[in-house]
Amino acid sequence: MGDQIQFIVEKLNQEPFRKNYNLITFDSLESVQLLQLLNDVLGEIDPKHAVDIREELPEQTGKRMLSLLGILKYKPPGSISDLSAFRQGLVTGSKSVIHPVLHWLLQRTNELKKRAYLARFLVKLEVPAEFLQDDTVADINKQYEELMEAFKNLHKECEQLKTSGLSTAEIKRDISAMEEEKDQLVKRVERLKKRVETVQNHQRMLEIARQLRLEKEREESLAQQKQEQKNQLFHAEQRLQRAQLQLKEMHHAVVDSKPESLMKKLEEEINFNSYLVTEKIPRELESKKNSAYFLQKVVSEPAMSQSDLSVIEIKINEVNAQINQLIEKKMMKYEPIDSKFSMYRQQASIISRKKEAKAEELQAAREELSGTERQMLHKTSQAHELEGSEVLKGDELKHYVNKLRSKNTFYKKKRLEIAEITAEYGILQRTEELLKQRHEAIQQQLQAIEDKKGISGYSYTQEELERVSAVKSEMDEMKGRTLDDMSEMVKKLNAMVAEKKASLAPVIKELRQLRQMCQELTQERDEKKIQYDSCAAGLESNRSTLEQEVKGLLEECVQEESNYRYINCMKRNLEIQLERAKEEMKAYVSPDPQKRRKAIREQYTRMILEQENLGKKLREKQKVVRESHGPNMKQMKMWQDFEQLMECKRECFLKQQSQTAIGQVIQEGGKDRLVL
Fold first, then answer.
1. According to a count of CB atoms within 10 Å of the terminal CB, is the N or C end of the chain lower?
2. For 604-607, which contacts have Cβ atoms below 8 Å and span 24 or more sequence positions?
3. In whole angstroms, what is the distance from residue 596 CA to residue 588 CA?
4. Where are the alpha helices (DSSP H) in 276-335?
5. What is the structure's pLDDT at 356?
6. Backbone angles phi and psi of 454, in degrees to 5
7. Where, if anywhere, are coiled coils annotated (predicted)?
8. Contacts 24+ apart (CB under 8 A), 188-196
9. DSSP label of 134
């Protein structure tokens, strides 16, 4: 295990990570930091995973990492037999799970990069069999598989070209650049050495400078560790303050309450949590799954045209009409027992909605309470930091707490009243929306039926009839009109309806003909559009081929122009050389000696003769030197011996003079002693 961690630390300190870890700092990383480190390594392998894990949910992070590890064919070590435990450890950032994964990834990074790159194009998308029955989907899937095979072949050719070796031009260019850099570095080092060699004890000073640099780096790392320790101490103090505050609250709760009340609170909390776990969260999860399923189903379906949408709308209208008929039949077969059941069902649904609303309010209140507690901790820490701050104690604190409790109870009552009113208002608003939607749907169905039957406006006339009949009934009640007047009014209205039907009949026939004509024109337009698209695609392909041909011809033209210019230059050079050769031939053949001297052949001939004469003179001089070499060497040896002899005589003369001077001094000293 130690070798594994050592290998991970060494790899992370290298390129491209540059983490600058040691064994202690790596072992002290938290679970979130370990997950981020694993995500960074996976992001180096596949750039799509280079994200910040704090911006996504832990489940999403674990799912994303597991999918990539599956693509990379990672197998958990033998110590982890349960895959669910491995997934849990990966989500929670367990060291026993993440360290082997990091070791495996860092051992074969280049291989895994290649595998991740190939997975982007070679992981086949599974298409359901029912979708493959569609010809368009089947053709696209076949093209997809052909492109995948083509990619495989191209990748193999690319790998073969890479393994065949680099180009010589690139290698030569790299070698020349490296040699230039080497020469520059050598010159720089030599200049620095010359500068340093003039300084006394330069080796010792270099050693001291190196030690100073190491100590500065160590000082920076120690300062960083000190700052991290301070941050950890600050967080630990905050946790301690929160724990102390919770302990005080628990003490107060125990002092002010009884076991029965504590048990009641615990039962309420358990009931609330069980309701969340068994009812609310599964229901929300099921609704989310259903919505995701329907959205995925809509996405997987092929694109619909306007005709398909119109057919679906007609089917929806027919189904709604059938539903309305069934509802009417059910209302006609009304029974009191069913009415009681419906009443109980309505009450149960109202109670369930209230229960859900209360659960949401309780959850929001808990979140608000936790936020308030965090604010209170922050404020208390600020109060402790500030000097001279006043804190309530004793009776003042009790009075303030009682006042807050009374306000809190009043606030809770009002909050409950508001919540009940809001719930009732929501129920009524929802009921109103449902009734409006049902009314609009019924109106649309009725309008569609009227359009279909060719009696558009009948419902409006019927409503007018009902309104008129209602007004008539009120007037009959008020003024006591007889039944004959009512029947007469009905006859008039029926006559009006019949007249309107008769007047609308030819218009409806014309409308039907126009609709049929519109459908025919729409079909013809679709066919023409298909022909136009195919023709446009063919022209586009022809245009692309012609563009490629024009491009190739332009390149050939440019190449031919360059060849033409090169040939012209060569031709000019040859012409110049030919002219020079002709002039040389004229000068060489000319009887005029002045012109012949200007000829290049004559000039070279003269130079050759001069060099030959010079060579003869030098050879003669060399012969003389060789003949006089022996006597000259003897004479030089004699002169050297003579010089040594004269030097010996000079030294003997100097010694004799110094001895005579010392004898005279001694004689004079003896005479002086005799005189004394």
1. C
2. none
3. 5
4. 281-300, 306-332
5. 76
6. 85, 25
7. 137-246, 309-375, 511-584
8. none
9. S
User: Is-contact 413 420, C-beta < 8 A?
Assistant: no
Q: What is the CA 588 to chain-centroid distance, rounded?
A: 83
Per-chain mean pLDDT for the chain: 78
Residue 675: band (very low, low, confident or very high) from pLDDT cuts 50, 70, 90: very low
Single-letter residue type at 378: H
- What per-residue string of b and e applies to 522-554 under the rule 16 or more CB within 10 Å gives b? eeeeeeeeeeeeeeeeeeeeeeeeeeeeeeeee
Query: In the numeric block, which tokens belong to residue 38?
Result: 């694993």
Distance CA 131, CA 39 (A): 36
> Is residue 8 within 8 Å of residue 99, measured between CB atoms?
yes
Place of tokens 């010159």: 187
Closest Cα partner for 317 from 148, 447, 200? 447
pLDDT at 361: 81
Q: Tokens representing 498? A: 């019949």
pLDDT above 70 for 96: yes
d(CA 165, CA 378) in angstroms, rounded, equals 66
CA-to-CA distance for 136 and 303, rounded, in angstroms? 11
Report CA 602 to chain centroid distance, whole Å.
81
**654-673 burial: b if 16+ Cβ within 10 Å, else e:** eeeeeeeeeeeeeeeeeeee
Closest by Cα among 208, 186, 187, 206 to 197: 206
Q: CA-based angle 380:384:389, to the nearest 5?
A: 95
461 three-class SS: helix
Q: pLDDT tens digits, residue range 2-58?
A: 777 778 888 878 777 777 777 777 777 788 888 888 888 888 887 777 777 777 777
Distance in angstroms (rounded) separating the CA atoms of residues 205 and 476: 123
Q: What 3-state class would DSSP assign to 82?
A: coil
Phi, psi of 82 (to 5 degrees): -95, 120
For the chain, report the end-to-end CA distance as a whole number of angstroms.
Answer: 107
Q: How many residues does the chain have?
A: 676
Rounded Cα distance between 413 and 417, Å, is 6
C-alpha angle 451/455/456, rounded to 5°?
Answer: 60
Q: What is the pLDDT of residue 395?
A: 65
What's the pLDDT at 671? 53
Q: Tens digit of pLDDT for each residue in 201-239?
A: 777 777 888 888 888 888 998 998 898 888 888 888 888
Task: Spell out the residues 6+ positions from residue 68 whose beta carbon is closer than 8 angstroms to its own.
Answer: 42, 45, 46, 49, 116
Give Cα 573 to chain centroid, integer Å: 61
